[in-house]
Amino acid sequence: MAVVNTSRSAKVGSLLRYSALILAAALFLAPFYLLFRNALMSEADLGSPRWHWLPPTWEWGNFSAIFNDPALPMTRSLVNSVLISIFQTLGVLIISGLAGYGLARIPYRWSNAVFYLITATLLIPAAVTFVPSFVLVSSLGWISTLRGLIIPGLFQALATFLFRQFFLSFPKEIEEAAFLDGLGYWGTFWRVVVPNSMGFAAAIGTITFIGAWNAFLWPLVIGREQTTWTVQIALSTFLTAQSVNLSQLFAAALVAIAPLLMMFLFLQRWIVEGVERTGMGGD
Amino acid sequence: MTTTPANVDVSAAAAAPTRPPLGARLRGRQNQNLWFWVFVGPFVLGLIIFIYIPILWSIYLSFFESYNTVTPTKFVGIGNYLDMLKDESFRSSLGTFIVFALFIVPTTFALSLLTAILVARTRVMQAFFRSVFFLPTACSYVVAALIWKMSIFSGVRSGAANALLGLIGQDSIPWLSVTKPPWYWLVIVSARLWLQVGFYMILFLAALQRISPTLYEAAAIDGASSWQSFRYITLPQLRPTSAAVLLLLLINAFQAFDEFYNILSSFGTYPPYARPPLVYLYYVALGQGQDFGHGSAGAVILTLVILIAALVFNRFFSFRGDD
């Protein structure tokens, strides 16, 4: 009797659970549905007071239109976003990877002091330093330049901290063998440590890439000229100016998130690991 | 400016004036001090130039009157700080942050914990549900703002929210163009909720998977109900993760900028209400005035506020963790 009751309440419980999950999943997917629908609607249908579940006419021309619109620097801003995100990802991986390894493995008298100097910056929220950083970058003459957008973002204390923690847990025996073979710190790092750290680097790399691609405040402050707009700034400019073909703006937004949607489809494992590492490593 | 980073190089190289040339030492026997700086130097140099110098310089600027210049001459003491603290709109930006945090922190926390628990207990299609809740993390605040402002909460009849209201016979609501009632909070909060729930769900999922199943088995043998095992096993075991998530949510709410800017500003102007600290700072320091003195003073005050808040929070949680 008790067994029957348990299985019945378990069935009811799992029915409730799946109903809640399906409802929540529908709500979470709805904005994506609207993005796709609007991107493929004509301007007139999107502006009409009637609700349409699907575009009455499928406007595939929206996509070619945004690349041919001289007012919307779509190609240029996409190229900027790609360049900034790739350089920032590679730069952070190399700079923080090297620093993390040095802190974890090379004995040095002031190693702890340097480590505190680095972790102290973790306490300062990045966003409140945008005024001082802007002041510095503007006096270097880097406003509206790609280097002004890329270089200040290369020095991520959190990434260095996480690399250090990761290398501390790296099996020392392998490195010692390489060291005995005469590889030295440099050779050991590149030939033995790096090839065995690709998974971790992929986790940090995907998270850095997503952050760089979606960044807004810094590119808004630094990339003032149209030639240095990232795709987020281009979208934002037209969104807040409200003088644009709305369905084409949705088409542009779809293009802007397409690379990250691809990443989520194919690299989700690394992204999830990156979230787990960066989310819990920061405290 | 550039002398400090140069000094680091010089001192590292000059530390051993009598030794063989640099190239020979790098190729030869391992010199640990040198190699430490080869590995760590680039990062520390960047950190000094792009984090430490701007912060120190900004503190310096905060004591000067500096409109449109970064080399000011007129010292005003703590005048800028007093101006900021007296400024009604600066104080109301802190108020806006508090209201926003009261909305967003508990809702994100509860929803990400709930989705994590539901997903963790699901066998069929677990990966699908996890991906669906995680997918919005791929979206930028700008794209979310576009969908929220122009499609879901557009004031027109064909906006998704108003179309839904129409189905149950309600009138359309001009979500973003009225302040009484302040519907814009619903727009702002739901956008951030959608964007960040998946991120924290992943953190909770990882923590849930670390809880040993033997704890639940022991509880089941003792006849614990599912509510009891949630209350007395799951919640206490999630404590470190919960504390970290709450702190992250608070700090992120404090730094909110993107969705406020993109949802609320139109035709190049931002409304006088609902300005969180960073939006306010953006317009003071980088608006037409380029008032770096007041902007820097504001940045210093905000840094202190968030540091104190984080310390108090940590203290509070470590106290409760002791018993």
What does this structure look like?
- Chain A is mostly helical and 283 residues long.
- Chain A folds into two domains: 62 residues; 212 residues, MetI-like (MetI-like fold, Orthogonal Bundle), CATH 1.10.3720.10.
- Helix content of chain A is 73%, strand content 0%.
- Chain B starts with a helix and ends with a helix.
- Chain B has 323 residues and is mainly α.
- The N terminus of chain B is likely disordered.
- In chain B, strands 1-2 form a two-stranded antiparallel ribbon.
- Chain B has two domains: 59 residues; 236 residues, MetI-like fold, CATH 1.10.3720.10.
- In chain B, α4 packs across α15.
- Chain B is globular and about 75 Å long.
- Chains A and B meet through α1, α4, α5, α6 and α10 of A and α3, α5, α6, α7 and α8 of B.
Low-confidence runs of at least 5 consecutive residues of chain B:
1-17
Reported for the largest beta sheet of chain B, the result is:
2 strands, antiparallel
Strand content of chain B: under 5%
- Domains of chain B, number: 2
Oligomer: heterodimer
Report how far apart the termini of chain A are.
50 Å
Give the terminus-to-terminus CA distance of chain B.
Answer: 50 Å
Give me the CATH architecture of the largest domain in chain B, please: Orthogonal Bundle
Overview in brief:
The complex is a heterodimer of chains A (283) and B (323). With 283 residues, chain A is mainly α.
Supply database-style keywords.
heterodimer, A: 283 residues, mainly alpha, MetI-like fold, 2 domains, globular, B: 323 residues, two-stranded antiparallel ribbon
Please describe the topology of this protein:
The complex is a heterodimer of chains A (283) and B (323).
Chain A: H1 2-39, H2 43-47, H3 61-68, H4 74-105, H5 111-120, H6 130-139, H7 146-150, H8 157-168, H9 172-180, H10 184-193, H11 198-214, H12 217-222, H13 231-241, H14 246-266, H15 268-281
Helix pairs in contact in A: 1-14, 3-14, 4-8, 4-11, 4-13, 9-10, 11-15, 13-14
Chain B: H1 3-14, H2 22-27, H3 32-61, E1 64-65, E2 74-75, H4 79-86, H5 88-121, H6 126-134, H7 141-152, H8 160-167, H9 184-210, H10 213-221, H11 226-237, H12 239-254, H13 258-264, H14 277-286, H15 292-322
Antiparallel strand pairs in B: 1-2
